[in-house]
Amino acid sequence: MARNPKDVILIAVLGVTGAGKTTFISKATGRTDLKIGHGLSSCTQDISVAHLEMQGKKIALIDTPGFDDTNKTDAEVLGLIATYMADTYAQDMLLSGIILLQPINTNRVQGSERKRTRLFEKVCGPGAFSKVIIATTMWSDLQSQSTGSQRVEERQNSKDFWGNMVNHGAKIVKHDNNPQSARKIINMVVSNAGKVVLQMQRELAQSDGQVSSTSAGRQLDSDLSETSSKLLAELQALQKESTGNMVSLREEIQELKEKLQHTENEKRTLKRSRASLEGPAAWISALAGVTSLAMVPLACVIL
Ligand SMILES: Nc1nc2c(ncn2[C@@H]2O[C@H](COP(=O)(O)OP(=O)(O)O)[C@@H](O)[C@H]2O)c(=O)[nH]1
Ligand SMILES: [Mg+2]
């Protein structure tokens, strides 16, 4: 493996929890020791790196925790992503591409997928869209392939989903969940020469690592505020309704209060989140393939 981290082609693999990121990396590298999620809970707790070589080139695939995680809030996930971005940018180690994995077996959950896509767009910025590959997964779970094709077309033609990215050069590709398919997708990144600075990397450098000052941070904050307002309105309506001691209403009110509290806590987490440069040595040597350790936990300092 290369000793100079700058010789390595870095590719970030992103997507919601359960999109198939770790499976994709495992198929591409032939590694069988990576933790793949088989239940409802997520497995990629932190960011990990797996290496492979293609046509004599050293490639590092960066596995990231996904939004919509079972154990982490989106604010925490964004903080982790910010940390590796700030670290690598500070070391002048730029990405060669971003692979966004997108399951196609479920119809889009109204709002949720749109929000995650928008957040992803804010992380990358329009200048990086030409280095994005949207790889659709879970085709074998579909009863008919035409349903999948129709879903792809819908998303591709909608500005709320992939339309904007595609108009700026993002590519859409079907991933067949086998090693050949994974390597073909990686090869698309490798042959699209050149490195890219993501919008969030530039913004973090300008804001001293303050996640909430970045476009993605501001987007998440506004999404959380919207959720908060909706919950509050629901809560107030229920409280008006509950004159008596109806148990079911009391329980519903309590549930709403807890959700509201969680959302407010997440907003606070986001506000305090700062990408740290803690431990860059371990991180950089892992990218270079010097350390045998695949998993390099990164800290996102919550002050
Ligand atoms: N049918 C199908 N299942 C997949 C595919 N990729 C991953 N899976 C399954 O989806 C689940 C979640 O995969 P995982 O790689 O842990 O997702 P991650 O959270 O994005 O890392 C596992 O049960 C995988 O076996 C795919 O392309 N097709
Ligand atoms: Mg994973």
UniProtKB/TrEMBL annotation:
Coiled coil (residue ranges): 232-273
Keywords for the protein's UniProt record, in alphabetical order: Coiled coil, Hydrolase, Membrane, Transmembrane, Transmembrane helix
Protein name in UniProt: p-loop containing nucleoside triphosphate hydrolase protein
InterPro entries per the UniProt record, alphabetical: GTP-bd, P-loop_NTPase
Transmembrane segments: 281-302
GO molecular function ontology, one term from the record: hydrolase activity
Pfam families registered for this protein in UniProt: MMR_HSR1
Highest taxon above the source species: Eukaryota
